[in-house]
Amino acid sequence: MTNQDGADVGMELTGVPDAFSEGVHLLTGGSRYVSIGNVSLGKATSFDPGLLTRKAINIIPIVRHHPWYLKKALDFLSNNIDKYPFEDMVDGEFTFENIESALESSVKREVNRAFIVF
To answer: CA–CA separation, 14 vs 32, rounded Å?
Structure first.
């Protein structure tokens, strides 16, 4: 697709720190890299910062989104549940009856992505 030159734009959406590092290697010089998924503090990955400089990669962090976008995201998940391995992005599964525990675990950063099962 890129003739081995790398992508002009990359997006990291998983929240997995190593995915951020991997994405840097998939970009071409002068590209833009949007980071949305890594919101948890204290999670680390290793990469060569010189690669960012030599490739002149512009990193664009995004932390917040408009509330209407949550509906759009949930619709996407619902429509593609059998197409992508979304379960691999979740590290905490809770029943609806244990929603307080899910919230507490999220606040304490014991889980990055809590999943509520109804």
So the answer is: 17
Cβ atoms 12, 35 nearer than 8 A: yes
**Helix, strand and coil in the chain, % to nearest 5:** 35, 25, 40
Angle at 105 between CA 114 and CA 65, to 5 degrees: 50
Q: For residue 115, what are the β-bridge partners?
A: 93
Whether this prediction's pTM lies above 0.70 is answered by no
| pLDDT number for residue 40 | 77
Q: Which CATH class is domain 7-61?
A: alpha beta
- Which residue ranges make up each domain of the chain? 7-61, 68-117
